[in-house]
Amino acid sequence: MGKSLFVTGTGTDVGKTYVTGLLVKKLCEAGFSAGYYKAAISGAVPEALSDALYVKKVAALKTTDEKLVSYVYPEAVSPHLAARLNNRPIDMERLTEDFTAASEACEYLTVEGSGGIICPLRWDEKEKWGLAELIKKLNLAVLIVAPAGLGTINATLLTVHYLNSQQIPIKGIILNRFHPGDIMEEDNRAMIEAMSGVPVIAMVQVGETELPVSADFLAGLYS
Asked: Residues 108-123, buried b or exposed e (16+ Cβ, 10 A)?
C-alpha cells in the first residue's frame, strides 16, 4: 500500500478540487506514481465533468472512472441527504475497500473530501458519521484548502480547531485565489500561521496551472 493524504476545504466552493488537481498533476509530472480517490460526489452524474473527472483530466491519470469515486449522486446537496434521496446509503466498509484498492494502485494517493471537514456522509437510523470518522478510519493526515480573501481567518482556524479536537494530524494549509500584493491576503496568511501554528505551504493565484512548491516537498506530506 502506498502513502496517502486527505485534502479538505474550509467549506464548499473554496477551490478544493482545483487545488487537488494541481497537486496530483505536480506529482505526476515529476515522475511520482500518483492517484486520486473520493468517497462521494453529489451534484454530478457519471457523464458530467465531476470533481473526480476534473482531477483525472488535469493530472492526465490513467485510472478508470469507476475507481476514482465510490458514490456519485445527481443532487447538489450534502452526501448524506443525496444518499437518502437515492436510497443508496454510504457504506464505510465499501469506502475502506475502495480506498485500499486505490492506495495499492499507486505510491501517492490523494483523497479528496466533500465540502468542509464536518460534512456528514451518513446520517440515518442505523449509522451517523462524517468525514472525520472516515479520515480516522483510514488513518490519514489532512491538508487544508482555504480561500485567501476576507473571512478566511475565522473559517480556517475553526477547521484547524475541529481537526485538532479529533486528533487528526494537519500537514499544512494552501490558500487559494491569492492576489499578490494584496495587504489583507498577505496578513491573512500571517495571522493564520500565527494563530494556528500550522504552516501555509502555498499561495495559489487565480488561474494558476502549477502549484508554487516542489514535488519533493509535496511528496513529503504523504504518510
From this structure: bbbbbbbbbbebbbbb
**H or E segment and range at residue 38:** strand 34-42
The catalytic site residues sit at 38
pTM over 0.85: yes
Residues in Cβ contact with 11 at an 8 Å cutoff, skipping those fewer than 6 apart: 115, 116, 155
User: Which candidate, 212, 196, 136, 213, places its Cα nearest to that of 168?
Assistant: 136
CA-to-CA separations, 3 to 110, 152, 162, in angstroms, rounded: 9, 29, 24
Task: Write out pLDDT tens, residues 154-175.
Answer: 999 999 999 999 999 999 999 9
Tell me the residue range of the domain where 23 lies: 3-219
CATH, residue 43: 3.40.50.300
CA separation for the pair 51, 71 (Å, rounded): 12
pLDDT over threshold 60, residue 49: no
Distance separating alpha carbons of residues 89 and 107, to the nearest angstrom: 30
Half-sphere exposure of 24 (CA within 13 A, CB side): 33
